[in-house]
Amino acid sequence: MQQEKYEMILCVVNAGFTDTVMDAAKAAGAGGGTVIHGRGTANKEAEQFFKISIQPEKDIVMLIVPARIKDKVLHAIYKNAGLDSAGQGIAFSVPVNHTVGLSAPVEKNTNEEEGNEVNA
């Protein structure tokens, strides 16, 4: 049985806009995400180059989504919390090679019984 392919979407947004990101992502089919609080380190040159003011307090929203809906989720995030919005978010995705603990069924490997690590 072939396991479904997943992508991790990361969205860096101004603090306080995680609900905007999550609402957009859920409307596009994402199930949920994880939020990490952070602090931006951009300088004045970056603000001038991007023509935005950079708020130091940031939130990073991480979502694991099926690859088939990645573009829809990214577009929804951009539309609702992109650089042209108050959230001034940027989002990108990276492929996920292996997953465990997601709802897709995983075949049991006989190496598990021998104590060897198995990548599902």
List the helices and strands and how they pair.
Blueprint: E1 6-14, H1 18-27, E2 34-39, H2 44-50, E3 57-66, H3 70-81, E4 90-96
Helix pairs in contact: 1-3
What does this structure look like?
- This protein has helices at 18-27, 44-50, 70-81; strands spanning 6-14, 34-39, 57-66, 90-96.
- The chain is an alpha+beta fold and 120 residues long.
- It has a four-stranded antiparallel beta sheet, with helices on one face.
Largest sheet, if any? Answer: 4 strands, antiparallel
**Which of globular, elongated, flat, extended, rod-shaped describes the shape?**
elongated
Tally of contiguous helical segments? 3
- Into which percentage range does the β-strand content fall? 25-35%
Series of secondary-structure elements, N-terminal to C-terminal: EHEHEHE
User: Overall mean pLDDT score?
Assistant: 83
Poorly predicted runs: 104-120
Distance between the termini: 11 Å
- Number of distinct beta strands: 4
Helix content: 10-25%
Quaternary class: single chain
Strand order, largest beta sheet: 2-3-1-4
Structural class: alpha+beta
List the defining traits of the structure above.
single chain, 120 residues, four-stranded antiparallel β-sheet, disordered C terminus
What is the compact description of this entry?
The chain has 120 residues and is an alpha+beta fold.
